[in-house]
Amino acid sequence: MIADDDFFLRVGQFTDVVEISQPLASFRVHKDSETSRLESLSHRLAQDYLFQMKEYQTRPSFLADSDISLIDDQAVRFINSFFLESILKNNLELLKEAGELRQEFERLVGRYFLKRSSAGARLLWLIAQHMAPNSRSFAALSLLLRVFMKAKKKLLR
Length: 157
What we know:
By secondary structure, this protein is mainly alpha-helical. The chain has 6 helices and no strands. Helix 2 runs antiparallel to helix 3, helix 2 packs parallel to helix 4 and helix 3 packs antiparallel against helix 4.
């Protein structure tokens, strides 16, 4: 999924990369595309950014520290997005997978995950950590989050 990022990182090892600010190609969105068949794009992107993190840690890296930090930030972003998605879908299995992705991140770079997360995401992780692992408490969290999001949309109108 992040093939473009990976491609340009690899090309950047050998030559400068420049931006051309006008479209040179286009693509068609259709029901049989790889992206449309994914159950969760956030899940896939979280996995892909974690893969990139493993790559720069196991191989000599040509990336600057600021580039590595951007990859880490994107991993946090998509793990949190997948975590939120699991709550909204009221799906305990997805919640467990989001927790495993977070643990993988922390295994790779230490306990910086929550520091890189928004205040709202930190609060949700804290609540999820302390709730009983059953569907009733999870459903309550899901409902609370939906009510909050609905109220937020009304406030932003």
